[in-house]
Design a protein that fits this description.
With 130 residues, this protein is of the alpha+beta class. The protein is built from one helix and eight strands, in the order H-E-E-E-E-E-E-E-E. The strands form two sheets. A four-stranded antiparallel sheet has the order 1-3-6-5, with no helix packed on it. Strands 2-8-7-4 form a four-stranded mixed sheet, with no helix packed on it.
Length: 130
């Protein structure tokens, strides 16, 4: 009898662990599909010239999503986005602008935070200022 209770406890904890693992898998899924690559290379650009690029995404979730915040790594990189809900199966964009003040290679990361998505999406712009 004791062995049966012990076995049931083990199965209970294994089941609870697997359930938690499955929940994390589904909860961690991104609701965003990028329609453009998440990295963009401006190539060679002249100093003091402003360059820009738009990253497009699609809402893959059954609910509306919106961008909570976009963080850039320095003042030379700026971001713009529409401050509205993106309906299911609709698209949105993030417009990134780079001000080429310093000569040399650059690689800037941009973190995009969507409401109700735990981990941010990471974008990258890079190039060479001459």
């Amino acid at each position: 009898m004791k062995q049966k209770v012990k076995d049931e406890k083990i199965y209970f904890w294994i089941g609870l662990f697997l359930l938690g693992f499955l929940w994390q898998s589904f909860a961690g899924q991104n609701s965003v599909a990028w329609l453009t690559t998440t990295a963009y290379n401006f190539g060679q650009i002249p100093q003091h010239q402003i360059q820009s690029h738009r990253f497009y995404f699609k809402n893959n979730s059954p609910e509306s999503i919106s961008i909570d915040n976009v963080r850039t790594t320095c003042g030379c990189t700026a971001s713009e986005w529409e401050d509205k809900a993106i309906l299911p199966d609709s698209t949105g964009f993030i417009h990134i602008t780079y001000d080429a003040k310093q000569i040399g290679a650059f690689k800037k990361r941009i973190k995009v935070f969507f409401v109700h998505q735990r981990a941010p999406e990471t974008l990258l712009v890079e190039g060479l200022v001459q």
